[in-house]
Amino acid sequence: MKVITILGSTGSIGTQALEVAKKHNIKIKALAAHSNVELLAEQAKEFNVEYACIYIEEKANKLRQLLSDTDIKVLTGMEGLKFIAALDNVDCMLNSVVGMVGLTPTLTAIEHETDIALANKETLVAGGELVTKSAKEHGVNIYPVDSEHSAIFQCMQGNKKSQVRKIILTASGGPFYGKTKEDLKSVTVKDALNHPNWSMGNKITIDSSTLMNKGLEFIEAMWLFDLKPEQIEIVVHRESVVHSAVEYNDCSVIAQMGVPDMKIPIQYALLYPDRMECPTKPLSLTDYGKLSFAKPDYQTFDCLTACIKAITLGGTMPAVVNGANEEAVAEFLKGNISFLQIGELVTSALENIKKEEITCLEDVLNADNKARMFVIEKIKTL
């Protein structure tokens, strides 16, 4: 029986991962959530875990009350996440938390030689250099959970990495595909949360609407597959059926397709290299009839442009754009800034914060903090 832990168990990825675990008899040793204490308690009881961690410390007592009739040990905060990441006799840790909070437990798990199923973009965006180096040193596998990166990973099976010419990273285009900046001036939070194909958390859905999500995935792909920026092509594919593709040096292109359901890449990461029956529906190409492909609009969606520039500059700059975006998205969701100001703030942070080299985790965390403080101060002047 495979034994795993899940960080972010009450979110979209986490709940679907538990569906997969139930179907395939995967044992869950520990669960962690940000703030949904009621659902976390339900999950902990259902899967009979040993540990349950609530990140928001003020909710720990509530969790203890809900679990008082069990032997489940309650943890809290970053120390709780690190404790779970360091557990022995765990085959894989699924990291599906949102934001920079995911970086430290990922590094902790790697140091304890636990494989990672990675759905936390910020881990590789901000700390890719540290994470990939540590994974190599400790012989740890990182299995991508994002549908696009999982597709690339699948398309590379049985082929030589040295023969990859480029990867084709597909993007749905989000809810505002085809819109101009003029069109986007009056966008509301409700508009931005209305994704055409995927059901995701608020932060990731906003990132999809600004195409920041695709920019973060561009950076992730470079670290996951050891690529150069010029080896990645972003293609808008509205139907979200072709999840991504790999072009080899003989001009053959291998693509991975499926219905837009995250259970497929989640299961592949957790059960790799096995392919088992998945709790989703099969793909019918005739139901779709046609599949479309187009180039992204880099001028309108400046978050995407900022991400590509950041990873080209290297050092702490990806951490800067990521931190600036996290802060800007939080302010947009609160109604404090407009939709277009997200991209403006991310670009401004990239242009005004000095690049530093990364030698340790502290360098990444400092860059992240500088970016957040820059955005907070900038908003005061708007």
Description:
This protein has 382 residues and is of the alpha/beta class. 46% of the residues lie in helices and 15% in strands. The chain contains 16 helices and eleven strands. The protein has helices at residues 12-23, 37-46, 60-66, 77-85, 103-111, 121-138, 147-155, 189-192, 202-210, 212-225, 263-271, 285-288, 302-313, 317-333, 339-352, 361-380, and strands at 3-7, 27-33, 51-54, 73-76, 92-95, 115-118, 142-144, 164-171, 232-236, 242-248, 253-257. The strands form two sheets. It has a seven-stranded parallel beta sheet with strand order 4-3-2-1-5-6-7, with helices on both faces. The protein has a four-stranded mixed beta sheet with strand order 9-8-10-11, with helices on one face. Strand 3, helix 3 (60-66) and strand 4 (73-76) form a beta-alpha-beta unit. Helix 2 packs parallel to helix 3, helix 13 (302-313) runs antiparallel to helix 14 and helix 14 (317-333) runs antiparallel to helix 15 (339-352). The chain is globular, with a radius of gyration of 20 Å.
